[in-house]
Amino acid sequence: MIINFSDLAIALDNLQTKYNILICKSAGNCENFMYNQPKGRILEGADSIKSLVVGSIAQAKGPCDFSEINNPSPFSRIGPGPEYIIKPEVVHYGGNAGLDRNGQLVTTGIKSFSKDGSLSTSVGTSFSTPRIASLATGLQQNLEEAFDPLLLKCLIIHSSTYPDNLQIPLSERTNQLGFGMPKNISQIIYNSPYEATLILRDTLSKGEKIDIMDFPMPKDLIKDGYYKGQIIATLVYDPILDPSQGIEYCQSNIDIKFGSYDNKKERDVNKRNILNPVGRNGAKNLFLEELYSKRLMKDNVNEFALKERLLIQYADKYYPVKKYAVDLAELSEANKQNFTTSDKQWYLYLCGLFREHTEQKARIERTTPSQDFCLIITIRDPEHSVNVYDDVTHELDNFNFWHNNIRISTDISTDISISINRNK
Looking at the domain 7-186, which fold is it? Predict the structure, then answer.
């Protein structure tokens, strides 16, 4: 297991900062499956904070192969990385492998080309990784926007779901598959009428918070007196990195809260740490696992539960990628009554945090530390009965948000991007 961040990872991070690029890095391969030993941890370099690290799943299963289709390839290395960060972040098809009756290695490979240009097959995370690099390239070609590594990384992770027929325990999902397998380009870019995707791309400096108190939660999602719907949120940020700090290489963090509240209240900004003159009564962050019914989550064996539901309890705050996927229908009965009734208002809150070393350095240099981030939130009606896209657009106009559609190479309406004034 990698305890400290490797020199190669730090070098990859430096390259991405210097040249404004996104590196897709393979998680690495191991042969432990041939000796009936546990999978090895990710290789050096795959612990890069900024890189999009890719593992492998099996696209087919031969007679002697060990992995079932859509399950982690036997050779694909697993996470977590240093400080328990989630690596790999995504997976794609990279082949299968096993042993024949004589104990010899056999493989079911991915089609590729040999050195002489003829068709050949082979296996490895070196075959799954180019698929993700190709996906990122295709996304960029379809977006009429300046190249933005954070946006591309966030779009890919946000679209990722766990494959069908996944047979590993829930507790092992993120270690072996990260956030899952991304969708194709058209599925990433285009919303159905039953969902809306908001993208917030900004910079958060020390002392700043983003506190959206009129979050455009669609009122048409109110059914039988309660808000229903699925919320998927992905936060990718570009943390301050300092190799001199060893295991505390990642020097900054962003916390996200999303939920409901009763009403607004006035606050005294003359008091310490009170930045916003308007506050909330009865606010509750709904990205907390303890709010959801264990019975309902166990009984709801549907596509969302199998492929998307995600409520990670982070071992530490300094995770450069955070993702939540919740279904309000799975809240416990008491929490539904407390937090999702039709009279509730909704909020989104982002706050940066910096380690003491960075804060001291900033004071000496008289600078203000900051970090770029990209947040993507999808609101979805799983019953396909509410035009969520139009409803969210209406709410954005209602609350006087400045917003625009992401520019793409066709004129089809797509995701909404919003820009919010932060509180200082």
Answer: Rossmann fold (3.40.50)
In this prediction the pTM is: 0.92
Model pLDDT for residues 279-322, shown as the tens digit of each residue: 899 999 999 999 999 888 887 778 888 888 887 655 457 889 99
Let me know: does 233 contact 252? Beta carbons within 8 Å.
no
User: Of 268, 327, 253, 340, which is closest to residue 296 (Cα–Cα)?
Assistant: 327
Strand positions, DSSP E, 170-320? 195-205, 209-212, 222-223, 226-227, 230-238, 252-261, 263-266, 278-281, 284-285, 310-311
Residues of CATH 3.40.50.200 domain(s) within the chain? 7-186
Instruction: Tell me: pLDDT of 422 over 60.
Output: no
CA distances from 200 to 136, 355, 416 (A): 19, 24, 9
Q: Are 125 and 58 in contact (CB under 8 A)?
A: no
Question: Any alpha helices (H) in 340-415, and if so which ranges?
Answer: 356-365, 388-398
Q: Over the stretch 92-116, which tens digit does the pLDDT of each residue have?
A: 999 999 999 999 999 999 998 888 8
Quick one: which of 328, 344, 343 has its CA closest to 232?
328
Q: What is the DSSP string of 158-207?
A: HH-BPPTT--S-GGGHHHHHTT-B---HHHHHPPPTTEEEEEEEEEEETT
